[in-house]
Amino acid sequence: MNSNDFVSVNHILAEVSMTLDDAEYRKGFSIGWYTSRIQDALQELAFDTFFDTVTIDKDMPKKTLSLELPKNVFNIREIYLYNGSCCSPSTSQVVWYKRLYNNNGKGEGYTAKIKDQGSTSDDDPFLPNSYNYNSALAYVGNKYYANVQNGLLMLSSECAAYDKVRLVVNGMGTAIGDTPIVPRFFERAINDYVEERFYNAMKAREIRKYRPLWNDAFSRLNDPREGSWKKARLRISSMDSWEKESYNEYISSMYHK
Amino acid sequence: MASYRYVANDIRTSLNKAFDDADIRLIQILYWIQVVANRIRVSQNEITESGLFVSTFTSVTVSTDTKGRHYFDLPAQIMDLPNEKGVVYITYNYETGCCCAGANFAQTYFQPTHVSKLRTLYMDEYTKPTTSNPYFYRIGDKFDGVDVNRIYLVGTECINVTDVEIAIRCTLDPSSVCDLDAQIPLPDERIEELMKAVLDLGRFVMMMPEERVNQGSDESSPESPPPPQVPEPIQIQEPENRQ
To answer: What residues contact A108, with CB distance under 8 A and at least 6 apart?
Structure first.
């Protein structure tokens, strides 16, 4: 589900610190420690649910044909090339994944287990990027592909025809050091996560007292049916009713209209 | 609340009934009262965690030591409680003027740490000491061989802090009671405990010389052991969930 509603770190801290009887922050954990756990929780949720989708526009590195992936992102969802400015892309092009493509960040020369012939009249081994159709070769045209190795996005030589690269990627929640912004769907899960981390740390001090408390907190967070983590994952991954209705319309209209 | 005069005279009268030839001075009883009251105050604070023993100082001058570190001298001795709970808050002496956000100590305040934990704090971007996330630690014994009772500020190295506002949980100075008619700074319900404990202390002190004298005779008998000469100490009520 989509929303644009967030809760502040202070809102989470206010509940967590009271629940843990640490409103004075005098149990050996600073406010920064709690904030760091909130960031952890968001990061884990980002890895588990892909809730954080980010669009990043970069200039095309025409010389090296390679880009370092930005910090604080993972999982490339889409790559586009375009001309014009980032506010108003004019012509645009999808970039596809090519297995084992490797220019080592150095430009046009590359290695790959299966190389293309370097001609715009070749059979496009991926998907039709061009609408030129040759009856013998099917779709032909420029080939726009890329691969990633060690955080380096390597683009094919024909991508240089465009000025900009647009990456749609998943973010890792909040960059380390930034103030976390918590989607409201996750409020319960994040409270429970911080609570679990707190008791986990306290176990090292007094295991007899804190192990049962940690156990309760762990169950509240990770129960496979009622746990707040599970609920958070379900909430964020479920479709909006609008989307669902639309899908229903499309599917029901396919063969019956 | 009971005054020092009332309680001290009452205790002296009681002690004189048991040890009529003892030369117990009022100043000595006052000293005992302060010693015992300090212990009861810590105990009471742990039970209630109220603001009864909190004192505030609106402007405490911050100095810089020979290493360039910011510190201030504590204006009074504080209770030595876990995680520096003896210091209730330290905050910049700067009112933001934002009435909606509360007093300045409700906004940015210095968090307690220990000098040995600072290194770890610098390892995490969120716990790292900064002007908006400042810490304090206490040096309560010596600085270069000189007795000190200091609070050091961390995270303020890049700014000039002239003074801070603080609140502390003070202890009583056992060596000085300026006004006999002042109220003993304890809740009423614990005055009885104070009196018992001071009487106990007095009785203990009176017994000590007798214990030190070797009379050369065997006072024990096989049938009944000699009665204890030192009274059992009175147990001061302790909180159940001590943190």
So the answer is: A65, A157
Which structure tokens are listed for A88? 């108003």
Q: Which residues of B touch A213 (CB under 8 A)?
A: none
Q: Where are the domains of chain A?
A: 3-51+174-251, 53-171
Residue in B84, B111, B126 nearest the CB of A35: B126
Write out the DSSP string of A78-106. Answer: EEEEEEE-SSSEEEEEE-EE-TT-B-TTS
> What is d(CA B205, CA B31) in angstroms, rounded to the nearest whole number?
13
Residue A160: burial class (beta carbons within 10 Å; 0-12, 13-18, 19+)? middle
Cα–Cα distance, B10 to A14 (Å, whole number): 49
Whole-prediction pTM: 0.84
| Structure token digits, residue A223 | 């129960």
- Where in chain B are all domains bearing CATH 2.60.40? 54-169
pLDDT greater at residue A207 or residue A88: A207
Interchain pair A32, B113: CB under 8 A:
no
Using DSSP, state whether A59 is helix, strand or coil.
strand
Measure Cα distances from B173 to A207, B32, B35, B147 in Å: 39, 11, 8, 17
Is a pLDDT exceeding 80 seen at residue B218? no
CA torsion angle B56 B62 B68 B73 (round to 10): -60
Architecture of the CATH domain B54-169: Sandwich (2.60)
Per-residue model confidence as pLDDT tens digits over A29-61: 999 999 999 999 999 999 999 999 999 999 999
Task: Tell which of A9, A13, A26, A206 to mutate to test the B interface (max B CBs under 10 Å).
Answer: A26
